[in-house]
Amino acid sequence: MATTQNQLVTIDESSDGDRKYILQRLNNDKFVSTGKQIIEAADLSMGIEAWRSNLADLYVDAHAMAKKFVDRVADVRLIPRHGTVHLIFVTVGSEFDFNLADELATLNIRLRRELQTYGEVEASQIPETELSQFISDDEQSERHN
Amino acid sequence: MASIEQHIAQYRHNRRFVATISDQYCDWIVRSTFYTCVHLVDATLAHLDNYHPIDHKTRNKAIANIRQMEFIAKKYDPLYQLCRKIRFFADPQLWVPKQQIASQVFGRLLYPLEQSAFRLLGISNEHSEIVIKPS
């Protein structure tokens, strides 16, 4: 659809949903999509952006929580794996921290209630000394990329 | 699917087993305690909501979303986290030393969860404290 750069084009799902559009890339590759497919793709893209933003906010919250356990939590990591994002509190020392576990339980309850906002996220604690047992080398290196 | 009564029977069965485990197997005490709670939680979900979870994920979501079970969720989640990880530890005694089993795993998590579940299920608190078997 050739228009001037500033001209807004409306694709109305009710009237244009079945209409076919040719989408042309800079390299002249062309795709044919219906109005409905274009709207759905845009919707999904906006959804993913919102989810990424929510997850970034959650990571900030997690760091704030970790500050309450400054002597016990060495790091907080987000590891996506098999459709679930694991929010891992890396603890100093070898013992399970029951106070931290109480906080993480409250967080997990919130996350399970707000699936629409964060998707599948699970918070847990892992001691530094056992980290390699739960996080692969690839996942470790991804953190630094 | 199991009935409420069957879940409660399995809960009692597992709880009796916990008391037979020597304190040199703290990891197995933790794991058995968790599976004791699983059946009590499932009985409670069935009683309150006629809900029968098929796996940990659906169970966790269900507990979190039933307001009456919020207290149980707060006690159950640490047990779930403990149980999930302790299986893979080379030396699980370091993570949960035996000195913490009675006070933390039982006193802080299991007993309060049981009391809350019993109240929701409308049954009297039938259990005494678990005495850990010394090695």
Q: Which helices and strands, and how do they pair?
A:
The complex is a heterodimer of chains A (145) and B (135).
Chain A: H1 13-16, E1 20-24, E2 30-34, H2 35-67, E3 73-81, E4 84-91, H3 98-113, H4 115-118, E5 121-127, H5 131-134, H6 137-144
Parallel strand pairs in A: 4-5
Antiparallel strand pairs in A: 1-2, 3-4
Chain B: H1 4-18, H2 26-49, H3 56-65, H4 70-86, H5 92-95, H6 99-121
Helix pairs in contact in B: 1-2, 2-4, 2-6, 3-4, 4-6
Strand percent estimate of chain A: 15-25%
CA gyration radius of chain B, whole angstroms: 14 Å
Major β-sheet of chain B, in short? none
Give a quick account of the main beta sheet of chain A: strands, pairing sense, barrel closure.
Answer: 3 strands, mixed
Mean pLDDT of chain B: 94
Range of helix content of chain A = 40-55%
Number of helices of chain B: 6
Number of E strands of chain A? 5
Give a quick rundown of the structure:
The complex is a heterodimer of chains A (145) and B (135). Chain A is an alpha+beta fold and 145 residues long. Chain A has six helices and five strands.
Q: How does this model look, in words?
A:
The complex is a heterodimer of chains A (145) and B (135). Chain A has 145 residues and is an alpha+beta fold. Chain A has a domain at 55-144. Chain A has helices at 13-16, 35-67, 98-113, 115-118, 131-134, 137-144; strands spanning 20-24, 30-34, 73-81, 84-91, 121-127. In chain A, the strands form two sheets. Chain A has a three-stranded mixed sheet with strand order 3-4-5. The mean pLDDT of chain A is 88. Chain B has one domain (4-121): Four Helix Bundle (Hemerythrin (Met), subunit A) (Up-down Bundle). In chain B, helix 4 (70-86) packs antiparallel against helix 6 (99-121). Chain B is globular and about 40 Å long. The mean pLDDT of chain B is 94.
